[in-house]
């Protein structure tokens, strides 16, 4: 056993093949974790100390996997609590509706109508999920991740899982590390501000043709970001990523408030 193999044996813990991108600890997992966690080092003053705390040392290693495993163990319980709180809040205050009307009559109870509606959706999604897991387990994986983690070998292309690719493209589109990290997190957190950015009382795009057009353009741009996140960071792809990133944020900051005002005043002539 040479020095590289010995280092890999010491670094790689056993029995960590869990449902996560990092925990399998292949070569893509290792370098993906190294790239993503190193983003915290861009935070002024406490960045480096915070990164070493997440690592549990001075690099991605066994303690890092322990922290990620604990996080993945706790997250389902946190999500379950949030779902229960959401249902309680929904039970007390009621839900909104696509046309924005407020009424205290003709309301449907949550059970059994919405319970069984959600159960049907869950069954359909679970069938698809089961087919993917049991019949095509390698469909969404990266072949290089079957190579054991090796801190001395960097894969030619480091990419996260497909659901992170759009935000990874946004991260790479900005040359400044700190600004890139802020833009990536802002791309996720801006979704929380959508109810405030879209001031229209009519929520459904079914009744708003301009919103419908803008939404499909936004979705197309999001798919382009997903594609760009999986490509090499060449000049052409970086420039396309910057353009797609600008369109992504323009949809929330410019299109939603502007279209809400235009359609409210012009198309519906409501005063």
Average per-residue pLDDT, rounded, comes to: 83
Q: Quick one: biggest sheet?
A: none
Distance between the termini: 79 Å
Structural class: mainly alpha
Any idea how many domains?
2
CATH-level-2 architecture of the largest domain: Up-down Bundle
Q: Count of DSSP helices?
A: 10
What proportion strand? under 5%
CATH superfamily of the largest domain: Cytochrome Bc1 Complex, Chain C
Quaternary structure of the protein: single chain
Share of residues in helices: 55-70%
CATH class of the largest domain: Mainly Alpha
CATH topology of the largest domain: Cytochrome Bc1 Complex, Chain C
Strand element count? 0
Low-confidence stretches: 1-19
Describe the structure.
- The structure is a single chain.
- This protein has 271 residues and is mainly α.
- It folds into 2 domains: 1-151, Cytochrome Bc1 Complex, Chain C (Up-down Bundle), CATH 1.20.810.10; 159-271, Helix Hairpins (Orthogonal Bundle), CATH 1.10.287.
- It is 62% helix and 0% strand.
- It has 10 helices and no strands.
- The protein has helices spanning 3-11, 27-37, 47-55, 62-93, 110-135, 165-173, 177-189, 194-197, 209-229, 235-267.
- The longest helix is centred in the C-terminal third of the chain and has 33 residues, at 235-267.
- The protein is globular, with a radius of gyration of 23 Å.
- It starts with a helix and ends with a helix.
- Residues 1-19 have low confidence and may be disordered.
Task: Produce a short descriptive summary.
The protein is mostly helical. It has helices at residues 3-11, 27-37, 47-55, 62-93, 110-135, 165-173, 177-189, 194-197, 209-229, 235-267.
């Amino acid at each position: 056993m040479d020095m590289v193999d010995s280092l890999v044996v010491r670094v790689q813990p056993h029995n960590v093949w869990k449902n996560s991108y990092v925990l399998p600890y292949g070569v893509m997992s290792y370098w993906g974790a190294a790239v993503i966690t190193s983003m915290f080092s861009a935070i002024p003053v406490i960045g480096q100390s915070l990164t070493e705390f997440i690592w549990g040392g001075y690099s991605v290693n066994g303690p890092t996997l322990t922290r990620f495993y604990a996080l993945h163990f706790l997250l389902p319980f946190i999500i379950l609590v949030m779902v229960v709180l959401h249902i309680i809040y929904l039970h007390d205050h009621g839900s909104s509706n696509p046309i924005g009307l407020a009424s205290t009559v003709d309301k449907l109870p949550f059970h059994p109508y919405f319970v069984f509606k959600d159960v049907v959706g869950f069954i359909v999604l679970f069938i698809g999920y089961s087919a993917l897991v049991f019949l095509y387990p390698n469909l969404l994986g990266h072949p290089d991740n079957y190579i054991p983690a090796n801190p001395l070998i960097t894969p030619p292309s480091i990419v996260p899982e497909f659901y992170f690719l759009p935000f990874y493209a946004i991260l790479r589109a900005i040359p400044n590390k700190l600004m890139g990290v802020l833009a990536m997190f802002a791309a996720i957190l801006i979704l929380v501000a959508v109810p405030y950015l879209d001031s229209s009382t009519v929520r459904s795009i079914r009744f708003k043709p301009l919103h419908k057009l803008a939404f499909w353009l936004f979705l197309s741009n999001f798919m382009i970001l997903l594609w760009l996140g999986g490509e090499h960071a060449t000049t052409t792809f970086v420039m396309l990523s910057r353009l797609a990133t600008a369109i992504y944020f323009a949809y929330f900051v410019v299109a939603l408030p502007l279209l809400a005002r235009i359609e409210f005043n012009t198309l519906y002539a409501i005063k």
